[in-house]
Every structure is written in structure tokens, then in C-alpha cells.
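Q: I'm building a small set of examples for a reading group on sequence design. Run inverse folding on the following structure and report the sequence directly after it, with nothing in between.
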């Protein structure tokens, strides 16, 4: 009595399932090897068990087999879909041409050209569209001008702050200049010592202080000369 027909379905018992997997895996890899040798075929087999373990066989290189499979599949797919792809791009080109034509026609209407065939309602709609566009342009212009004004105000504020800081520095230097003059000339009037009054924001001491002092020998008086001569003659 021969064996009955095996029902192809999942084996529930894990032990029996593992034994069957091991036997059939070995048989499959053996058949793949025989096929590659007998028929000079390039064969690649990849098996993952239920536990995730990898088993594989390749007559040459598994990487080259996978690359060849991918390229052949893509070429075959392109060959089958070449006709449908051409039709798809033809439809896309026709759609784009129609959109371009509509845009050009709408642009001419916005420029006030080719208004023949438009009724009052169409003209009113076109007028509203132009007003909305003009309103958007004006709003953008106002926004840009407002931003420029804010930027100028910000720069003006910074310049004003710098001016105040410089003014405070000048006042401090003036005060230091006065104190130095007081130390140099004691309790005398600083303006008199300088030869000139201190002007606002002026730091230089009077010009006369730096001029050289001219020393001259005084000439003897005539009376003294005559007296000395008389005493000499006696």
C-alpha cells in the first residue's frame, strides 16, 4: 500500500514542522545545485526559517544573481509598460498645453486685450480680479515702506544713543581738563592761567603757556653813566 497524498498545509506540531523543514530544505538546495550543474544555469536560492535563520545557495555569487534579477525585472517591466507610459506622457503634455493656453488667454484679458465675447458679468468679474490684485500690490508696498520706516527709526535711535554717549564722554573730559588745570595752577583762576577762557568742548590750555619766554638785558640809565664817569675823573 503506497503513501497517501500529503495535504499541503501548515504543520501544527512544532517538532514535526522543524523536521519537515530540515528535510525539504536540504532537498531543495540539492535540487538547485543539480539544476545549476546539469543545465549550466545561474541559480540562487534564499530561505528564511520560521525562527529567522538564513539558508542560501548560489551557483556563482549571490550578489551578482540578485543584481541581475533586479535589472532584468526592471527591463521587463519597462518593456511591458512602454506603451502605457507613452500614452501617460502624451496626456500630461496635452494637459500642460491646455493650462498654458488658458493662462495666456487670462493674461491677455488682464492686460485689457481680447475682451470680445465677454458679457457684463464676465467684465465685472475681471474688474474685481484686477482690484484684488491692485489691493494686494498696494498692501505689499505699504508693508515695505513701513518696514523701511521702522528700520530708519531704529538706526536713528542708535545714532541718538551714540551721540549721548559721546556727549557724556566730552563732559567727562572737560571736567578732567578743569581738574588738571586746577592742580597745575593752584587756586588761581583757570581761565586767566590759560590765557583764554575755556570754551565748551575745548581741551587745549591757553596758547600763551606754550610760547617761549623772551628774556632781555635792560640798558643802563644815562644818569648812572654820568655819575660813574665823574667819580672816575676825580
Amino acid at each position: 500500500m503506497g503513501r497517501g497524498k500529503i495535504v499541503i498545509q501548515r504543520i501544527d506540531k512544532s517538532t514535526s514542522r522543524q523536521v519537515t523543514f530540515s528535510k525539504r530544505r536540504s532537498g531543495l538546495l540539492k535540487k538547485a545545485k543539480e539544476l545549476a550543474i546539469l543545465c549550466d544555469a545561474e541559480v540562487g536560492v534564499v530561505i528564511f526559517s520560521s525562527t529567522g535563520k538564513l539558508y542560501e545557495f548560489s551557483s556563482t555569487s549571490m550578489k551578482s544573481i540578485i543584481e541581475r534579477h533586479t535589472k532584468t525585472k526592471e527591463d521587463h517591466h519597462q518593456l511591458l509598460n512602454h506603451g502605457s507610459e507613452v500614452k501617460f506622457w502624451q496626456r500630461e503634455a496635452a494637459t500642460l498645453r491646455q493650462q498654458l493656453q488658458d493662462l495666456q488667454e487670462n493674461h491677455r484679458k488682464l492686460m485689457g486685450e481680447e475682451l470680445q465675447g465677454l458679457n457684463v458679468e464676465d467684465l465685472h468679474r475681471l474688474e474685481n480680479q484686477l482690484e484684488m490684485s491692485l489691493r494686494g500690490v498696494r498692501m505689499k508696498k505699504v508693508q515695505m515702506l513701513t518696514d523701511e520706516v521702522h528700520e530708519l527709526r531704529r538706526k536713528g535711535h542708535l545714532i541718538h544713543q551714540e551721540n549721548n554717549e559721546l556727549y557724556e564722554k566730552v563732559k567727562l573730559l572737560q571736567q578732567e581738563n578743569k581738574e588738571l588745570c586746577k592742580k597745575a595752577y593752584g587756586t588761581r583762576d583757570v581761565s586767566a592761567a590759560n590765557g583764554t577762557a575755556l570754551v565748551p568742548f575745548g581741551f587745549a590750555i591757553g596758547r600763551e603757556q606754550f610760547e617761549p619766554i623772551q628774556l632781555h638785558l635792560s640798558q643802563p640809565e644815562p644818569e648812572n653813566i654820568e655819575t660813574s664817569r665823574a667819580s672816575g675823573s676825580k
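Residues 62-116 form one domain.
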